């Protein structure tokens, strides 16, 4: 897969066993990766946030 310059691949967990993938502009990386999506304490903290992939 080839992304345009300034774009990146991100994932976020769902309440099931799946992750959603999406593409967003890198300028929004800091804001995206700080959002706690799931308040479930059974899910490891690292897995509750949007993750950035190079």
Walk me through this protein's architecture.
A three-stranded antiparallel beta sheet has the order 2-1-3, with no helix packed on it. The relative contact order is 0.30. The protein is mostly beta strands. It is elongated, with a radius of gyration of 12 Å. It starts with 6 loop residues before the first strand and ends with a strand. Helix content is 7%, strand content 31%.
Q: What is the fold's blueprint, element by element?
A:
Layout: E1 7-13, E2 19-25, H1 29-32, E3 51-53
Antiparallel strand pairs: 1-2, 1-3
Structure keywords:
mainly beta; three-stranded antiparallel beta sheet; 54 residues; 3 strands
Average pLDDT figure:
81
Biggest sheet strand order reads 2-1-3
Largest sheet: 3 strands, antiparallel
Number of helices: 1
Beta-strand portion reads 25-35%
Number of strands: 3
Rg value:
12 Å
End-to-end gap = 12 Å
In a nutshell, what does this entry contain?
This protein is mainly beta.
